[in-house]
Amino acid sequence: MSSSNSSLSSPKVRRLSEGESLAGEMTSSDHSLSIADSQISDILKELTGLQSEVVALHSSLKESNEQIRRDIQDFCSIGENDLSPSNATSSFHEFQT
Fold first, then answer.
1. How far is CA 75 from CA 14, 68, 80, 86, 91, in A?
2. Where is the composition biased (Low complexity) (predicted)?
3. pTM (two decimals)
4. DSSP state for residue 18 in the 8-state scheme
5. CA atoms of 71 and 65, how far apart (whole Å)
6. What 3 state SS string does 37-91 have?
7. How is the chain split into domains, by residue range?
8. Average model confidence (pLDDT) for the chain?
């Protein structure tokens, strides 16, 4: 049985030296990966928030543009209604009498 146990690879065990703590071990690649995951998560949250803001601004801009088009059409139609041929001659005749 001892031969089967010796064939298994044993995990590397590193003893802490005096004054060293487990906190120092946290600066390993595992810690770096958790920081990277956290940063990626923060970036994704920010992008999602920005995406929502862009959608809201786009909707607002679209509504504003539609209102501007209606206002321009109304403004242009004011001049068209006043210059119709029947109105122009009747107002001229009224002025003459």
1. 83, 10, 9, 21, 22
2. 1-10
3. 0.42
4. T
5. 10
6. HHHHHHHHHHHHHHHHHHHHHHHHHHHHHHHHHHHHHHHHHHHHHHCCHHHHHHH
7. 37-81
8. 74
How far from 10 is each of 3, 28, 37, CA to CA, in Å? Answer: 14, 21, 30
User: What is the distance between the alpha carbons of residues 89 and 97, in angstroms, rounded to a whole number?
Assistant: 13
* The pLDDT value given to residue 2: 47
Whether the CB-CB separation of 78 and 71 falls below 8 Å is answered with no
Rg of the chain in Å (alpha carbons): 39
Distance CA 73, CA 65 (A): 12
| pLDDT at position 55 | 96
